[in-house]
Amino acid sequence: MNEQNPNNAQPAQNPQPGQSAQPNRSFSAQTGGRGPFPGQRGPRPQHHHHHGPRPDQSGRLPAMSASRQGTRIMRTDVHAPNTSPIDRPAPAMQQDQQGHNAGQGNQGGHRVVLGKGARKIAGVGHIAGARMTIAKKLDRGRGRGPTRAPNLTGASKEGDTIPPLAADAIRIVPLGGVEEIGKNCTAIEYGGDIVIIDIGFQFKEESTPGIDYILPNTKYVEERRERIKAVIITHGHLDHTGGIPYIMPRIGNPPLYTRLLTSVLIQKRQEEFPQVPKLDMHIVEKNQVITMGTFTVKFFSVTHTIPDAMGVILQTPYGSIVHTGDLKLDHVDGVPTDNEVQEYERAFKNEKVLMLMADSTNVENPGFSIPEKQVHKNIEAIIKSVQGRLIIATFSSLLERLMKIIEFAEIYGKKVCVEGRSMKQNLEVCKHLGLLKTKPGTMISSDELENFPPDRIIILATGAQGDEFAAMMRMSNKTHQKIRITPRDTIMLSSSVIPGNERAVQKLKDNLSRQGAKIIHYRIADVHSSGHANRDETAWIHRQIKPKFFMPVHGYHYMLRVHADIAKEANGLTEQDIVIPDNGTVAEIQGGGAKIVRLREKAASSLILVDGFSVGDVQDVVIRDRQMLAQDGIFIIFGIVNAHNGKLKKSPDIISRGFVYLRESQELLHGVRMVIKDAIENSSRGQNPINVDYIKDNVTDQVSKFLLQETAKRPMVIPVILTI
Ligand SMILES: [Zn+2]
Question: Has domain 2-145+613-723 been given CATH number 3.30.200.20?
């Protein structure tokens, strides 16, 4: 599903090991105090990303810089009087984040390291009799890649009770890609062996702020890693390959089978993960037959938007399990071409197909998709007739189209300049493999543009989705180093608009048209076609494969449901022949191919998030915190309290971000200080030594209530109480 991957292979935009870390990415201030995420074992190096104190809304400098940078304040060496047992982070909190109460601003969010002697720390102010040391970013060590020790030990409620597989049963577990478009991954198990098809990832969603990628939850196969005989990758798009560097080490780096182009794209990306063990890659061709454990495996080639896309046929004694990968059909007015017909005949004429899994991405669209050939024809006509420069923005994953555009450029005597790292990389791979052959002088750099008349120039650029840092956006907002848009330019957006990117694309078009450029996009002319089969194409594919059972994959639930209806119409399947899965659904074909059932037990399916350099599955709290911080900001209170009588040593320090402009809220500040003072002194009355946690809870409650009353906002309130 290339359309979902506008950034296909653009590591520069994503944090990778060894590259400079992105500052201020983390909010570990509120989440600190909890230990490393599961799957991250062992110490990690500390890297400090200090940007120096900056004045904040309240005009205060120092203390903020700590929280801003995700600082975690740890309490380790607490000296005697104030050591309430709960004042130290409970082990449970370190391990599983329990006890965190995002909304209330839990004190567990901070661990404070106290030592003897007074010292001024990062601007927190003088803390009499106490010294705070600040341990930065402990829970997101930099410099270590995403290669974590496999997470095999974490207890989970899911997945522990799945019964063993009967000898005459085949188990299919979609681990990703059936509740979304992206992170495709399916495990197929028979005779004690497991084969995995695709290990993709998904780009972040609005509901996961700050997250880089979402991975399929592979706990089920991690726990059965010794049985994995192979990973098969259907094609080179990131929603089918993106999880490889993260997940292969967790599942014991089993042999990986794929076709040539896919293998090179995977290998290229692996270079950005130097600490990951070398892949055991096997290149297959569509006619090959390979034994993988108890499975005999065959392939068939499918039409998609990238060369070397294939479907997989796993043979068992009860019939074959077929997985299409992403596909569409090459056709003329709804009649599949001879090539398609022959390939499906070759693969399925004598194949007894027990079960089919097929691409659901575009099944809601009626009829047949626009053939890529038609798109090529339209683009050719534009290349031929355009006056002035032609700037074509498209996905770097649409390799076939990119190569075709270069071919047309040569036919019409034009030069091609490629702007965008991922596009350049992908084209280099194609050149390297001999898929792309260019005459010397066709490809030019942006420095050479001025040597040619505009009529002879085509610029191929990334960023058709309005991606903030991609070449197209930089041209549109005049920040591109070499290229300025002029009113004589024609810009072709050869892409659809991915849901969620509408506003970004609108902004891109606005910026471009402000500069007078003429814009051609897919709604004006057929200059784009998706790589996925529409409804009637899908039905045709079903009729060629003729499965006994069916499981729709690659899509949101509704799409899978629509696809199930197509399966019924195409081959007369009934509801009992179809399992519409969720991620983690365990489906079994039982009784030697007699029936398909969905087990009550589910494999683990919680989101696995790649967040900076951490990979983990228990970050719900982190995400919730981020959402909350985005809504109403954070409000931090530093108070120093006499351990014996609970009296405040001085007026508490207050820091906030994203809440209200404190400098102009003196009355509010005054009020909140009174609330804090009362809360501390009331809750410590009669205690000796005082119970710091009890006080913190009270402060959190009282302050939250007060702020809500005064501002109608609910910032995250975090009290840090130091006792002396
Ligand atoms: Zn794809």
Answer: no
